[in-house]
Amino acid sequence: MHFTSERRLDDGVLERTFTLGDIPGILWTPASPPGPTPLVLLGHPPLGLGAMHPRLAARARHAAADGFASATIELPGSGDRPRLPVLEQGRTELRRAMRAGEAVGDEIVDALTLPLVDRAVPEWQTALDALLSLPGIGGPVGFSGGVISVAIRLAVVEPRLRAAVLFAGSLVPRAIVEEARQVTIPLHVLLQWDDEGNDRAASLDLFDAFGSKEKSLHAHLGGHTGVPPFAGEAAARFFTRHLK
Amino acid sequence: MHFTSERRLDDGVLERTFTLGDIPGILWTPASPPGPTPLVLLGHPPLGLGAMHPRLAARARHAAADGFASATIELPGSGDRPRLPVLEQGRTELRRAMRAGEAVGDEIVDALTLPLVDRAVPEWQTALDALLSLPGIGGPVGFSGGVISVAIRLAVVEPRLRAAVLFAGSLVPRAIVEEARQVTIPLHVLLQWDDEGNDRAASLDLFDAFGSKEKSLHAHLGGHTGVPPFAGEAAARFFTRHLK
Questions:
Q1: ipTM associated with this complex
Q2: Fewest CB within a 10 Å sphere: which of A87, B172, B202, B234?
Q3: For A100-129, how does the pLDDT look when each residue is reduced to its tens digit (9 = 90+)?
Q4: Is the Cβ of A155 closer than 8 Å to some Cβ of chain B?
């Protein structure tokens, strides 16, 4: 892990960019942490860290105000990373189906998602190794948002993950719904009730599938990007309950 | 409105019992309110105020800590009030269906609920008249919990009601689901995901039916009485956002 830049945000949060092999990432730490801090991994959609930076930094500042470090890495095939033909193909198929006004079938969802999950999850684990070896980062670790299928697989395979805030806002392969039954960590699941890109019934079925003994679903009126500010605050309190 | 007893709880909250005509009720006010306080009406199931008192008092103390007065009245046909044959008949039919292992049909739900709603709602409105005329009670007014059909009708007919926390935990007549479309106040709806006495799909349909522009659904794992403590805190923050 090599830090490539650092700057102080106006609220004192330290923002450092890094590379981990060829994977770019960002780490945010509170202005003056009282000791080793818990860590929240910030998930994001595959739109590139550059495009996502303003929203990620805003989430990181909220996390820092609650006493958490937070970090993210670029997804495979996104941002400045080389395109991956297998992912490009899935996206092309999705766009074609949407343009044609067709339902997005299982095959497209699988093609779009499974190769991303298979590649992204080991990278998040490698990042976790590196992040938890830094002075000042103590854990426990939470995962927040992003591609829900990535978060589900990570929750199944990564014992250091202790709680997750999930956003039921993307299409989930059937195979991942089955994996969700193996998830046992506490979950706080957000759902936008009128999400134009999402199937409400499928999201409710996914929530039902999670094996966790503590799970809660928080559905708010509005479309994909309409999550109200108070929903973010409730998610933050969930992390405070489980990571502190 | 005649006060019939008063006592200070150990946290300084003033608990006063009253009668309003032949309807018993209870009013709780914060130890030392800084001025006229908002009011939360505490709904409850038709089990009698006596039996419900410990849980109601606990909710009232939380409300007082947040700066709210709270009040409740006995439901028609419950507690020390005279039994109402029409309600007893509905309950008898429900018990018979449940003993026989039959599905609880629309007719039973209507028989059990509509006469209660028709009688209870005007009584809550009368109580509101009396409560809002007391010194120290300023409004705005919220409604919390209890029989959701009562809360829905009250939200439709009572303009002084400004926000409601609803518990999707009882059977709702189709006619009341239709009324729900006319509800426009902000709603915070609680649902127990594994509620043994409730139909999850019907509860989700009811949530969908509400006409409110701000509504959110908070589903937690567990049975009817398993609402986790943090869910109560989130509901309290909802009232703080909307009544202060």
A1: 0.84
A2: B202
A3: 988 888 999 999 999 999 999 999 999 999
A4: no
